[in-house]
Amino acid sequence: MSDQTVTRTNDEQQSNSLTDQQPTSHTVDAETDEQLVDSWTDYEFEGEAAITVEDLDVYYGDDHAIDSISMEIPEQSVTALIGPSGCGKSTYLRCLNRMNDRIDSARVDGTVEIDGENIYEGDTDLVELRKKVGMVFQSPNPFPKSIRENVSYGPRKHGDVNVGLLGKLLGGDDSEAERRLVERSLKQAALWDEVSDRLEDNALGLSGGQQQRLCIARCLAVDPDVILMDEPASALDPVATAKIEDLIEQLAEEYTVVVVTHNMQQAARISDQTAVFLTGGQLVEYDDTDKIFENPESDRVEDYVTGKFG
Amino acid sequence: MFDRVALGIVGTAIVTFLLGWTTLFDRTSPDTAVAGLSLFALFGVAFLLAGAGLIAAGIASNVGLFKTTADQYTGLGTGVAFGVVGFATGGLVTTILFGVGATGSALAGLVVALIVTLGIAVLPEDIGTTLPVGLLALVWGVLLAAGFVDVGWVWDPPSLAATFHAPIVVPLVTIALSLLVAWSGAIVAEGFGSQGRQNGAYLMIGLNAFGMIAVLLLLILFVVRKGLPTLLEGAQFGPGLSISVPFLTKGVMLGQQYNGIFPAIVGTVWLVVGAVVLAIPMGIGAAVFLTEYAEQGRFTAVIETATNALWSTPSIVYGLFGYAFLVPRFGNRNSLLAGMMVLGFMLLPLVVITSREAIKSVPDEYRDASAALGVNQWQTIRSVVLPAAMPGVVTGVILGVGRIAGETAPILLVTSGAPFPARAPSILGSFRFTATPPFVQNEALLQASSALPYQLYAVITAGVGQEEAFGWGTALVLLLVVLGFYAIGIASRIYFRRKLHQ
Amino acid sequence: MSTTELHQQVRERFGVETIDDRVVALGAAGALCLLVSAITFLIGSPFTALPFAGFLFTVAYGLYEYQAATAKALSFLATIGTGTILALITFYLLVEALPAIRLMGAEMFTSTSEPMWRTRGEEMYSLVPMMWGTLVTTVLAMLIAGPLGVAGALFISEIAPDAVREVVKPAVETLAGIPSIVYGFIGFTILNDYMMESLELPTSGSLVIVGLVVGLMSLPTVVSVAEDAIASVPESMKSGSLALGTTDWQTIKSITIPASFSGVSAAVLLGVGRAIGETMAATVILGHAQRLPDPLYDVFGNTETLTSLIASQYGVASGTHMSALFAAGVVLFVSVTVLSIGSQYIERRMKHQLQGES
Ligand SMILES: Nc1ncnc2c1ncn2[C@@H]1O[C@H](COP(=O)(O)OP(=O)(O)OP(=O)(O)O)[C@@H](O)[C@H]1O
Ligand SMILES: [Mg+2]
């Protein structure tokens, strides 16, 4: 609610000031901008692309939240998405595992290719897609279950571990496998040492930072290829944030990580490449993180990363 | 091909499901013959086809003819569901075939249930979800198609007062089996697995929602169709704007051409007005005290528990209370005033509960802002909290009023008088002031009265007979009044919510 | 206590700025008037109006002169009044039921030897058949309203598209308002005849019809209360599950239903309470036989429920007979109150659990 109102007023102010002052030069600017932007966002990298996005548009009703974005995300690296509030970062992220399908008013145009398949094609299996593309949310959202059940939730639902009465009956009880899986995922998420002696406690009793790492462990247990993180450290204190940052850097050895953040230093510290979104759902510049923070092409991006605007 | 078979099965099952209902309510006759087959034989053929299709699909998936996402095991959840079906089938079949008593059939049912549950749970999913349903459908199909169960079939269980004839039993079994078949077919259609189970569950939940709405709407339509002729009997529209509906404006009198329910309408109106006058100030007052003044602690907890207990107290208990407490104090006879008070007591907890909710949902910032201006607590409540809470309170009150307007039991005990009165109570016209205590008198308030729900009850106790049409008319008016209150209440809530979100 | 201390206290409690002895006096006068009128009303004196008028006058004057203090005092009185009503109901039910309970002792709730209900000659009041009737109809009703109601709630809040939800939800809430006497009338005129004819029932009316009708009747209530509970499960929790690659149905089963379990069971318990207390449908449909069905599970037989017993006999009852009806009321009141308190307890427990406390 408050988010929306804030962004709306921002939009209004901006468009008002633009139209009021120099309506003609603004359109000219925009035209040259467009070509420039294309070159600024054309990021060249070595290796394979995990995700290829082409001409992505998202509308909420009549609101244009993502404006024709194309970008390739390299695999096994950390890609940071930064930009002012309301510019569409979360919306963009949710396009990559089709969580936008949950929002009735949202409409998505364009293609998103993962593993060479367009996930917006008719018969995409959402379940398979989301197994492959995991997501960690802005605020920790553990299930009201025990820590162990939280981690093994995904594998259980996918039938990868059979526990309980039926498993016992058939002699194929997977509790041992489950235990190992839980331990591995919690260790990966750097949470094992803190919770190993209380796996049966309710996850809601953990601290915020622990909960967020539990959510990461929960996501890792499904063994995705891509992990999307929407401001994973925004609700945490510096110590917990540092832990999550370390974790993200480690994860990039195995996984493709896309992370939204408001914290410029954080993006600079952890990411290999950074994409800058600006108001109106536009991708303005996308390049190596060092380049973006030291010597960006676009003036607006420079203003933004140096804190003059946004 | 695979999908089409599955969809065909689901479609067939839905048709037999609907035909089952129409047959149960005599809209289609078992004797209807289509293509030389009676309706029951037709059901039989449909089940034979569906059953064979399900089994074929299950086996085809299991041997890998079609690629599906079937799980390794069917699982205990589905197993238990079939266990329940197995319990019913096993118990009934043993009773019908061998005539064993209740304990015997229950035991047999339990044994069957246990075997079925475990047996199905460990089967591969594509077999476990199709084969049992398919077999049941085949058996039922053979029984019907081959005429083992036909229109003349009867089962007279010795221990029950009822005798079951085919025209009831066959549609009921058909409906139940159709649901099973449709569920299984829906699972097949999505190729088993978690998607298949979702499809099956959604089909059942969707059918349930559809059926629920359909039944309740049919009920209302039924009352409208039965009641409208009575309501409009002798009614005249025009010339111009003059409308006369004697059913709504007349009482019951000998020698009158059209009798009506005017006294009952007036009675209900007064009852509602009295209850509202009593309950609303008191309810809102208590809600204000509990949320704004009192410290949250033992006292508020006790009152809250008491309010909830009052809210769930049955209406007849309120009636008894009124009978024991109020009636003796109002001249030992049934009276409108006692009815008003009892209904007011019933309305009170609802007003307290909804007002508390509404007041609680007023953001604290409002109060702080007001307090920061140096305004005292009461003025804050009066000019900030109450106005902000008003929409919620109003909505709750309207819904509560709808509820008490249809209440019969308490009125029966404390207000009811002559079942078909000729005249309406005239409250406003009967105030009298006297020089001796109690100084103010209102004969009409202390007299028995009729009310819409009571009038309907009176029709029933009078043995219906010729009065039945009168009863349907009353039922229609009562329904309109009560549903009217509800519609207004809900519409106002939607309106206020929209306004809030803009 | 000195007067200044008293003033201090009054000021704190009632939040009035200017305070003098007159406020205290006024409060005392109002309280006295109300007390006297309550007493005169209780003893049934015709003079009730006098002190009550005095009370009204004090209130009017108070509202004019010391609005804040009076408003607070009035709201306090309203709160006390609410509690008092519950106390009065409990008291009067018990007092009126006492003669019958004294006559019958514990047999009233346990005796199963015939005759169980005899109002003339050697009086005999056993509530067992009625308790059984209420139990059977409630169980039947909840077998219908429980699962179907929860499924309906799931449909509305989790499955239906927005457009459908916006129509179905208010429609169901409106249907909750159909008065029970209308259901009773339909059951009496249509279902009773239908069942008698097609099942060759010996008597008009049976427990199974009451169960069906009451189940149908409680359905909308269960749906709308359960729907509120299900809709209050936070979206973030559901998204969390879906993002792990589960289907909507798996999320409903493993996250939404467990998380809203308290609210859903409160909805079902509310339905049970309604079914137990449902009077008119049972009264007009049943054939009023105060004996146990034989065999006990013969739901096609006729017996009586606690509610229908009261509604059908209060008119001809007096003395111990009437008192026995009050005893039936006590049983109803106690069981429904226990249910209500139980469901509040469950709800509170589950709320704590959801918030991670134990
Ligand atoms: N569910 C929704 N319905 C309608 N509009 C939405 C919805 N979610 C987001 N929007 C709009 O889409 C635009 C982009 O929102 P988004 O949440 O993607 O921004 P964001 O960049 O993630 O912002 P923040 O940094 O504050 O999280 C905003 O204008 C917002 O108002
Ligand atoms: Mg965001």
From TrEMBL, chain A:
Keyword rRNA-binding: no
Region (Disordered) location: 1-31
Residue stretches making up the ABC transporter domain: 51-305
Domain of life per record: Archaea
GO (cellular component) term, any one: membrane
InterPro entries: AAA+_ATPase (IPR003593), ABC_transporter-like_ATP-bd (IPR003439), ABC_transporter-like_CS (IPR017871), P-loop_NTPase (IPR027417), PstB-like (IPR005670)
Keyword Nucleotide-binding on entry: yes
Gene Ontology MF, one: phosphate transmembrane transporter activity
Ranges of biased composition (kind: Polar residues): 1-27
Annotated keywords: ATP-binding, Cell membrane, Membrane, Nucleotide-binding, Transport
One GO term of the biological process aspect: phosphate ion transmembrane transport
Name recorded for this polypeptide: Phosphate ABC transporter ATP-binding protein, PhoT family
Organism name: Natrinema hispanicum
UniProtKB/TrEMBL annotation, chain B:
Entry GO MF terms: phosphate transmembrane transporter activity
UniProt keywords, alphabetically: Cell membrane, Membrane, Transmembrane, Transmembrane helix, Transport
Main location: membrane
Membrane topology: Multi-pass membrane protein
Record's protein name: Phosphate transport system permease protein PstA
Gene Ontology terms: cellular component: plasma membrane
One Pfam family recorded for the sequence: BPD_transp_1
CDD domains xref list: TM_PBP2
Annotated ranges, domain ABC transmembrane type-1: 265-489
NCBIfam families per UniProt: 3a0107s02c (TIGR00974)
Automatic annotation (TrEMBL), chain C:
Pfam families reported for this sequence: BPD_transp_1
Superkingdom of this protein's organism: Archaea
GO molecular function, one term: phosphate transmembrane transporter activity
Domain ABC transmembrane type-1 stretches: 131-343
Membrane topology term: Multi-pass membrane protein
GO process terms (BP): phosphate ion transport
Protein name per the record: Phosphate transport system permease protein
Species assigned in the record: Natrinema hispanicum
